[in-house]
Amino acid sequence: MRTGLAEQLRHLDGASYGRYKSLGGAWQMAGFTLEVVRGQADPYAPPARLALHVPAEHAGFPEELRNSAVRRRALAGYLARQAAAVAGRGPVHIDRGGQEVLDRSSCRIGDGGDRTGDVGDEVGAVTVRLGVELPGRGRRIDGRAADEILCRLLPRVVERALRHASLDAAAVRRFVDTVEDADALRRSLKPRGLVAFVADGSVLPRRSGVDDRPLTGPGTVPFVSPDAFRTEVELPNAGRVTGMGVPEGVTLIVGGGFHGKSTLLRALEAGVFDHVPGDGRELVVSRGDTVKIRAEDGRRVERVDVHAFVSHLPSGADTSDFSTDNASGSTSQAASLVEAVEAGAGTLMIDEDTAATNLMIRDARMQALVAKDREPLTPFVDLVRSLHRDHGVSTVLVMGGSGDYMDVADQVVMMDAYRPSDVTARAHELARVPTGRQAEADAFPPVSHRTPDPASVDSRARGRSRVRARGTDELTFGEEHVDVRAVEQMPDRAYVTGTGFALELLVRRGHLDGGRTLAEALDRLDRELVRGAAELLTVHEDDCAVPRRHEVAAALNRLRSLRIKR
After folding, report:
1. For 14-51, how does the pLDDT look when each residue is reduced to its tens digit (9 = 90+)?
2. HSE of 537 in the Cβ direction (CA atoms, 13 Å)?
3. What is the pLDDT of residues 522-551, one digit of tens each?
4. What is residue 401's three-state secondary structure?
């Protein structure tokens, strides 16, 4: 352990910028340890990576705030936000996240289980990882400015944001309890035969397409469950809560344009993550295996069995072993759906606005005009029932343009001015009126499990690992630029980065070994990621969040270098 950081910075003032590298290692500060994990080579290089390790005695957080993995994740989420607020906008960068409370590398509460013996692994200790733009005058070290950052600002962050005595104890407790309740609610869904839950009083609309905070003002309509779907649950902290339980099976969301159909679906998609207090969706949850499906023109598909949806192609290509570098809307959606089920999805969510129409419906008039032997596509409406009956995969579907889905829906929710109502009985009554449409299939076949070639999943570029995110649009993985814009359940940049790290971990740890199927490899990855972001930090030191297996599989399937062995 080194001492005298302030003196060392004064000594370095005016020296060549590269001398910052001499700061590497752990420095003893007042009440915490400052670790320089990675230096900054020059003023234009990526920021230095530092860690603040605050021992449990100094941090002082009561055991009740950190006595389970979910409560430690919630506490870390709160502290990351507080630390970022104290650091302010400037040379110090702390990944605080957005509305979601994820397992992030930026803050961790020690549980004593880290095999690395890290200084911050003590039970109850707090570790914050951050980036710092080390100051310089041209290509010379500005030692006084560095002293202000490292020896004055960072100690303020520790004292004001990472010690229980300095924080609003009620606010900390409320944050942790809120996340624990959401997690408990999500865990209760499957035993109740539900795929999702929306609490009464939830606020689903967001401020804008680029602002995920809740809509406010007199026009905001709190959610109220229809009586037919009202469910009561008992939560560890909030106690008795009521709301709309979405049952397993096929759920249809209907209604006029601009009345809240897609808003409800987007809230359910986001329900795989916990949210901060005040978000409006704190108790809007979906099962953790819920996956949003959409069309994605131009994506690559590698050896996916799509014959359930595409019987044949004019080119003669085998649709049970289908590959393309430029998928159409229908084939991309078919592939994405099959890939999701292969990766273990238990609930699919589809919005007609982003779906391929010709894969969703084919009405009686079109059947009469175009004979089945001239139409290779089998619409989803004829497969969705079997997907649940034979494979246990439920579907929640927004559909305002085709009444054919009334024939296959188990329950139908109508949105009217953001107010839901149960119209299942009326929909089933209408479905008894013949339309002349003939079902074109009645069974979704078993999913073929593929075995990826690990040599095709290479994170190296010019001999060095390169994994970066560009917002939520693109993942750079080695020499590849993976387009993830259509993978809609990636909430932020750190999550995309974590997805890339997890991909690298799949290969580095031998989970993808050329013999295991993708699903088997993902199972092994899940067991490793129980340790959370600490496991991803064995790959890289950059900010990341722990991803679900579903986004890891989605990124892998969009990797243009991917090869499937069988």
Report:
1. 999 999 999 999 999 999 999 999 999 899 999 999 99
2. 24
3. 999 999 998 888 888 877 889 999 999 999
4. coil
Give, as one character, the DSSP assignment of residue 400: S
Q: What is the pLDDT of residue 255?
A: 96
Tell me what pLDDT residue 115 has.
47
Half-sphere exposure (Cβ direction) of 231: Cα atoms closer than 13 Å: 21
CA distance 331 to 307: 10
In angstroms, the CA 98 to CA 87 distance is: 17
Q: What residues contact residue 211 under an 8 Å CB cut-off, 6+ apart?
A: none
CA dihedral 556, 334, 327, 300 (to 10 degrees): 10
* CA–CA separation, 359 and 378 (whole Å): 7
Q: Is the dihedral of CA 115, 121, 124, 130 positive or negative?
A: negative
Give the Cα separation of 474 and 545 in Å (integer). Answer: 16
Q: Where does 99-191 show beta strands of DSSP type E?
A: 107-109, 126-132, 136-137, 140-141
Locus of tokens 């995309």: 496
Burial of 373 from C-beta contacts in 10 A (0-12 / 13-18 / 19+): exposed
Torsion of CA 343, 345, 351, 354, to 10 degrees: -10
| pLDDT at residue number 378 | 98
Strands 411-416 and 419-422: antiparallel
Give the DSSP H or E segment for 251. strand 250-255
> Does 462 score more than 70 pLDDT?
yes
- Say what the pLDDT of residue 566 is: 78
Say if pTM beats, i.e. exceeds, 0.90: yes
